[in-house]
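STRUCTURE REQUEST FORM
Protein name: LacI family transcriptional regulator
Source organism: Novosphingobium olei
Requested output: structure tokens
Priority: standard
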Amino acid sequence: MADLARIAGVSVSTVSRALTGKGTLNEKTRERVRALADEYGFRLNVSAQNLRLGRTGAIGVLLPLGHERGQHLSDPFFSAMLGHLADELAERGYDLLMSRVLPDRANWLDDFVRSGRTDGVIVIGQSNQGAVLEAVGKTYRNMVVWGASGADLPYLTVGTDNVAGGALAARHLLERGRRRLAFFGNIDAPEFVARERGFLEALPEELRASTEIVPIHLTPESSFAAASEYFAAGNRPDGVFAASDIIGMSIVAAAAEHGIAVPEAMSVVGFDDILLARIATPPLTTVRQDIAEGARRLVDLVLQRIAGEDVSSALLDPVLIERGSS
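Status: completed
Returned output:
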């Protein structure tokens, strides 16, 4: 870099900014330095630079699937979140190192952190890995988790107020005159537990006691099969709160196969507001969580932690989006 700086007649820091694309620099100077670098066969050794700076230039994004081992990265929620995270990290000059984890031992997260492959870690979902996250969070600061919040958690979280979201769904169904209610979701996940709690707490006591809790998995295949079995057994709620949009759309499809009209005979409310919810038939009423804003907050917090700043968790407000399914 010093040789190239002498050839170009600029400082070493100018050469660095020109070749990395970071920092402010006159565009003509940037182009001239890059042209000289090409002419003399100079290539920036990013690995050596990162080693000198004590950084990797990458952020790990981990998806632990302890409670939903059949879930895939093609899941619309994951796809949307990963896309937004990749954009946010790229804009800050970081690479994304993604890993879908099927936890089979208690030290999987600790091993990843100790590997030194990334400068920080973003975990998408707590799954049933609460103890693992807490153990690592007590000693590793550069970790932010998308999921349910908690005052006593030793790590930062970004997530939607799931209790408030559940309450929005309950009030909406009550306003629609629905009284035979059911909640569909996998209550092994903290976020779903919070959604269920908010839903039940917002109901009158007599309806709270009669509301059915239906355990159901997140994949389209398993949630559709479980909903079909539920309706085949003769169950006929007139209002359903699904813990995710995928579950909600599966319930609508299964209901159609069993002659249950949505929304005439049964109102369905989902959670997430993924793109597919907007174009479903009928379009799905849902509790929206702002995935793009969530990704931005996750990246902000992990980079602030890397910089040594003292920051706090972030809680996003849910919004009810009314569509044709209710």
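Reviewer notes: The first helix runs from residue 2 to 8. The radius of gyration is 24 Å.
Form closed.
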